[in-house]
């Protein structure tokens, strides 16, 4: 007679918004979970109507519905790690933080989404303080890009020393491990992009990759943070999870897929 082992397969959850064209948000997270061999679930906080040209409308879900999603997943599944994506305002951030403290969803990876790659604002200005004061202290890993990191710490980056100083400041807010993504360097010539990593033990290093000239970059940040989430759920170290995510995301950018007319998605099928 077969013995059932419930919830033995690695399970993860994204707490994010739905992107109707599938290129970013919870959809990109779920693509990433799938290709990294974990079972992905979603707690949706909002939805946007968008396509490759941009976002035309958005809708926030009621807080009691978000509460119900947290409860439904916590009552049945063994979530080994979780991540956040677009949390558009302070009300949503406070609700998600309250629920995350109440459940056992493992390490939290915070992708502090502020704008899209093409300038559409996804977080209210006054909510940046809430991200810093409420959400970042819950984070095992935070993955802001360099423009998001500038908004969080309150100063612009003029050189790599500023990036390192910002990472230390974000760690000082309570985040254990910090990655500041996509710094193009002091005199960017279209050659490399750098991600600065500061780990909880104080060690630091830089991940570099060749810059890819393409408009198919939607979902890059979602994918990077989602793969970190997946790898942690499988038992990999924080450093190994970050390094795997960097390589995989670069593969997805470098091998483009032609979807849509303008700003397209990255190619999750290219990830190995």
UniProtKB/TrEMBL annotation:
SUPFAM superfamilies: Ribokinase-like
Domain Pyridoxamine kinase/Phosphomethylpyrimidine kinase, chain residue ranges per copy: 19-267
InterPro entries: HMP/HMP-P_kinase_dom (IPR004399), PM/HMP-P_kinase-1 (IPR013749), Ribokinase-like (IPR029056)
GO molecular function, one term: hydroxymethylpyrimidine kinase activity
Catalytic activity field: 4-amino-5-hydroxymethyl-2-methylpyrimidine + ATP = 4-amino-2-methyl-5-(phosphooxymethyl)pyrimidine + ADP + H(+); 4-amino-2-methyl-5-(phosphooxymethyl)pyrimidine + ATP = 4-amino-2-methyl-5-(diphosphooxymethyl)pyrimidine + ADP
Record keywords, A-Z: Kinase, Thiamine biosynthesis, Transferase
Enzyme class: transferase
Pathway where this protein functions: Cofactor biosynthesis; thiamine diphosphate biosynthesis; 4-amino-2-methyl-5-diphosphomethylpyrimidine from 5-amino-1-(5-phospho-D-ribosyl)imidazole: step 2/3; Cofactor biosynthesis; thiamine diphosphate biosynthesis; 4-amino-2-methyl-5-diphosphomethylpyrimidine from 5-amino-1-(5-phospho-D-ribosyl)imidazole: step 3/3
Superkingdom, taxonomy of origin: Bacteria
EC code: 2.7.1.49, 2.7.4.7
The family this protein is said to belong to: Belongs to the ThiD family.
Protein name: Hydroxymethylpyrimidine/phosphomethylpyrimidine kinase
Gene: thiD
